Amino acid sequence: MRAFEATQIFFDAAAEHLKIDPAMREALLMPNREIQVQVSIEMDNGQLANFVGFRVQHDSARGPMKGGLRFHPKVDLDEVRSLACLMTWKTAVVNLPYGGAKGGIGVDPTRLSEREIERLTRAFVDQIHDVVGPDSDIPAPDMGTDHLVMSWFRNQWEKYHGFNPAVITGKPVEEYGARGREEATGRGVGTLTVKLVRRLGMKPEATNIAIQGFGNVGTHAAKFLSEAQFPIVAVSDVTGTYYNPEGLEVRELLRHTMKHPKGFIEGFEPCEVLPRDALLNLEDVSVLIPAALGGVITEENVDDIRAKVIIEAANGPILPQADIVLQERGVIVLPDILANAGGVTVSYFEWVQNRQHYRWSLDRVRQELDHTMNEAFETIWETAKKHNVSLRTAAYMIGIARVHRATELAGMI
Ligand SMILES: NC(=O)C1=CN([C@@H]2O[C@H](COP(=O)(O)OP(=O)(O)OC[C@H]3O[C@@H](n4cnc5c(N)ncnc54)[C@H](O)[C@@H]3O)[C@@H](O)[C@H]2O)C=CC1
Ligand SMILES: O=C(O)CCC(=O)C(=O)O
Fold first, then answer.
1. Rounded mean pLDDT, 274-285
2. Centroid of ligand 1 to alpha carbon of 221 (angstroms)
3. 196-237 pLDDT, tens per residue?
4. Burial class (CB in 10 A: 0-12, 13-18, 19+), 159
5. Can you give the C-alpha Rg of the chain in angstroms?
6. Is the CB of 109 under 6 A from ligand 2?
7. Helix or strand or coil: residue 97?
8. Model confidence at 411, in pLDDT bands (50, 70, 90)?
9. Is the pLDDT confidence value at 413 over 60?
10. How many Å apart are CA 36 and CA 106, to the nearest integer?
11. What is the dihedral of CA 201, 204, 207, 213, to 10 degrees?
C-alpha cells in the first residue's frame, strides 16, 4: 500500500466520526499544491548528477504551512504528499498556528560528501525559493537532513530575499536556531512515553524498550528514556539490531555513534548483533518505538510483534491493516501526529523567537514543550474515551475538526 492511501484510510475513519460531508472531506484531504523539480549538481569527481526534489503544500487554513525536508532514496511524490498531509493534522493536534507541508529529495545522503550535500541543498533552494517563506511555508529537518542543511538552505534563500532566519527552523543554535530543537522530537516522544506507561499502570524500571532508528529522534528518545530509568534493550539502524537483555549502556552507545564517521551503531559492545528487522519481534520488549521509516509494521509482520505499547516516533510506521490487528489485540498505539509533534512544536518556538529577535533559555523551551505535549495528550486521551475510539482516530478527529473549523471561518465554502 502506498503511503498516501494509508493516510487517507486513517483520515476517513475520523472524518466518518465527525460526519464531514464527502466534498468537504475531499477539500480537506487533497494538497493545495505539489511541486516537483529537477536538482542537478556537480559531484566532487566532476561528474553531473541529477536528482528529483519535491515540496507538497497540503493546507494553509490555520496558518503558514510547516514541515520538514527529507533526503532519502525512497522519497517520491506519494510519500511527500502523505507526510505533508500528516503535518496538517499534527500542527492542529498541538494547536500551533500553522498548516502542513513537506519536502524532500530522492537521494542517499550517506553516499554524498558534505560539500555535495551543500551543493544539492543550494540547488534545491534555487528551484523552490519563491514558494517558501516565513509567512507561507517554513521547512525544517526530517530524515537525512540536519542543522547544517537548514543553515545552507537559509543562506541560499536569503541571497534571493534578504535577511530572514524565520524562513526555516532547526538551524544551528549559533545561527538563530532554538535551544532544544535538536532534542525536541525525542524529548516529546520520551515525555509522552513516560505519561502513557504510568497511565497504563506500568513501572519504568520494569518496562523494556526497543527503538528502531538511531538518528536524531531515536538517540534523543533513548537518552531521555534511559534517564527516566527505562531499560533500553535494543536499538537498530541501517546496519542491524543491537540487543542486550540486561539493557544497553545508552551513554556509551551515544558516545560510540558520535565517534562513528556515519553515526552508525556497528561495532558497539557489549551486545548481540541481530538482523535489522529482528528488533520488531523481540520477546522481552514491552514498548516498541519505531523511529525510522514509514510502513514498517504491515499485515505480513504484525503477528510477530510482541510489544504491548507502540509509540510512533516515525511518521506513518504502521499500515492500516496492521493497525486494526493491533487494536484487536489490545496493543496501545500512540499515533505519530501526537507522539512526534515535539519537533514541530519547538520549530514553532524557534520561528517565534526569530520573528521577535529574541532568545529563549533551554529551560523555557523545555517547559513550554512539556506543557504543549501534555495538554495535547490529555485532550486526545479524553476524546478517545468519550467516543470509544483509538488514540489515532481521536488525534485525527481533533486535528481534522480544527482544520475544518478554520476552513469554515475563513469563508472558503
Ligand atoms: N527530525 C525530526 O525532528 C522529526 C522526525 N520525525 C520522524 O522520525 C523519523 C526519524 O527521523 P530522524 O531521526 O530525523 O532521521 P535521521 O536521518 O536522523 O535518522 C534515521 C535513522 O533511521 C535509521 N534507519 C533507516 N532505515 C532503517 C531501517 N530500515 N531499519 C532500522 N533503522 C533504519 C538510520 O540508520 C538512522 O539511524 C522519520 O520518520 C521522521 O519523519 C518526526 C518528527 C520530527
Ligand atoms: O519541525 C518542523 O517544522 C517539522 C518536523 C517534521 O517534519 C515532522 O514533524 O514530521
1. 97
2. 12
3. 999 999 999 999 999 999 999 999 999 999 999 999 999 999
4. exposed
5. 20
6. no
7. coil
8. confident
9. no
10. 11
11. 120
Determine if ligand 2 sits within 6 Å of the CB of residue 106: no
Which residue is listed with cell 519481534?
A: 281
Would the annotation count 136 as a binding residue? no
Q: How far apart are CA 197 and CA 192, in angstroms?
A: 8
Residues 30-80 pLDDT 10s: 999 999 999 999 999 999 999 999 999 999 999 999 999 999 999 999 999
State the pTM of this model: 0.97
ipTM above 0.85, yes or no: yes
Atom nearest to 70 CA in ligand 2: 7
Amino acid at 266: E
Q: Measured from the CB, is residue 82 less than 6 Å from ligand 2?
A: no
Report the C-alpha gap between 289 and 280 in whole angstroms. 9
Q: How far is CA 319 from the centre of its chain?
A: 16
State if residue 142 touches ligand 2 by the CB under 6 angstroms criterion. Answer: yes
Ligand 1 atom with the shortest distance to the CA of 72: 17
Q: Catalogue all structural domains in the chain, each as residue range(s) with its CATH number.
A: 31-166 (3.40.50.10860), 182-339 (3.40.50.720)
Kindly give the pairing relationship between strand 232-237 and strand 209-212: parallel
CA dist list (Å): 199 to 231, 332, 340: 18, 11, 19
Q: Is 290 helix (H, G, I), strand (E, B) or coil?
A: strand
Shortest-distance Cα residue to atom 22 of ligand 1: 213
